[in-house]
Amino acid sequence: MDDLNYWTKRVLTVSLSDSVRTAAKLMEDNNVSALVIVEGTKPKGIFTQRDLTRVVADGLDADNTAVSEVMTKDPVTLRLSSDPKTAEKIMLGEGFRHMPVVDNGDNLVGIVSLRDILRTRKG
Asked: What is the mean pLDDT of residues 45-54?
């Protein structure tokens, strides 16, 4: 496996004003556990199953709560040129399951998951 192509290029996104229900439906329909919240092409947050659990536990209205209210703001990102060992170190050190991947202009180009990292160990 090419070390620079271990992350997923297909990343699902929503905007800051989209509702939690919209985000949850997109996650369910695409069988993913994280979305990146973008403004233009820049990641502004990440919304995961953990965030969705918090919404339910706090009794928030999924139709009337913007994803920007419950997302993890200003997510740590991974540079396009980073190798899997760097990604693994950051993710395990910070307790992340997902991290947006950005180019040198901080534009979103993908997402890396712990599952992606595990795949690099099989090769």
From this structure: 96
